[in-house]
Amino acid sequence: MHYLIIGNGGAGLRAARTIRKRDREGAITIVDEEPHPCYYRMRLPDYISGWRERDTVFVVEEDFYAENGIEFRRNTRVTAVRPDEHEVLLDAGGTISYDRLLIAAGARPRELSCRGSGFDGVVYLRTLDQAEDIIRRGKAAQNAVALGGGLLGVEMARAFNELGLNTHYLIREDRFWPQMLDASGSALVEKVLEEKGIMLHKEEGIDEIEGEGGRVAAVTTTAGKRYDADIVGIAIGVVSNLEFLEGSGLETGRGILVDEHLRASRPDIYADGDIAQALDVASGEYRLVTSWLNTQRQGQIAGVNMSGGDEILEGVVPFNVIVIYGLSVASLGLDIPPEEEGYEALTGDYPKDGRYRKFVLKDGVLVGGTLIGDIGEAQAIESLIKMQADVSDYRDRLFEPGFDAKRLLEEVKGAG
Predict the structure, then answer these.
(1) Prediction pTM value
(2) Under DSSP, is residue 372 helix (H, G, I), strand (E, B) or coil?
(3) What is the Cα–Cα distance from 401 to 279, expressed in whole angstroms?
(4) pLDDT digits (tens, 9 = 90+) for 110-144
(5) DSSP character for 69?
(6) Residue 328 to residues 31, 356, 370, 374, Cα–Cα distance (Å)
(7) Can you tell me the distance from the alpha carbon of 92 to that of 83, in angstroms, rounded to the nearest whole number?
(8) Domains and their CATH numbers in the chain
(9) Alpha-carbon distance 9 to 31, whole Å?
(10) Using CA atoms, how far apart are residues 281 and 271, in angstroms rounded to an integer?
(11) N or C: which end of the chain has fewer CB within 10 A?
């Protein structure tokens, strides 16, 4: 049996590890465009900031692949998948045949489109090489601008600030992380950023990037303001790497559509991680979930099923955790209720004492939650969402002192 994995990130590596534990004899090949062993993308901002040494970024060391009988084809790009022939085409020519194929090709940063967006000094943060480029540039820079209201945007602003740069942080929306946080939750994060010296500008994007000699010099914002910049960091989302699948016959949306076994629409092909579009139990829709926890869970399931097992993905629940200058933030499922009948958001007497708690219900069923300052209940909330737990009978107790989601989970299980 030959297992071929496209992608050496967290999802691909976890699948490879799982396969090897279950099949000691099968051949495993991992193909990836990057030259490095698998690393934690979420640790890159800390590496830039100087909070982490380079060697702590890696998930495995160089000798991992050889020690586990895994062929690692680095600096190699797959240009096409031919399901009928059970093979993939490579950019350098030639093909690789497979018995089972896992596509864990991930995503790439969405690029900014405006005048000057191609100047030297406009940077993105997705890869280790990009992180090291930012470190190099930061040593010679004084002023920086970061754009993006999500997790990577705030991490890039923090990294610039920790490099000692005069940092302007632009959020095009009216608050930080608007897809997940309401105004009250965002305000706690904004306060921490401003206390650390980051200049936050809400409802302000980049209209134009000015340059001198082909290099970034300043940005003009959609509010008509001008900020000097030696480096401009863009974090406005990601795009799944689907281009090489054209003509493969695989069903795609924003990612590769998969069933509960992570099987794609063609025989012997699976997908996991950032590129897999699976059923979200909170919304009832097929969606992409980009988090390390998701890559590990899906990698495990894909590896089991590719090697002859039968493990089911019990839906995906968006589960994002970030620590911003010591402030922990966790968001699960739906945080911003749709403007539809049956949805409601419960916050009790929060925010208070720098903390925030929020539960989102649909017809009494828990579909989302947000924790800021104390995120110890996050996994219990995720379990309740996956259970589609009806918490109607507990709504008046959710914010009582000492009554938390862990206790709620125990009571719901006991009632069931």
Answers:
(1) 0.94
(2) strand
(3) 35
(4) 999 999 999 999 999 999 999 999 999 999 999 99
(5) T
(6) 35, 10, 11, 7
(7) 20
(8) 2-108+239-306 (3.50.50.60), 122-236 (3.50.50.60), 326-415 (3.30.390.30)
(9) 10
(10) 19
(11) C
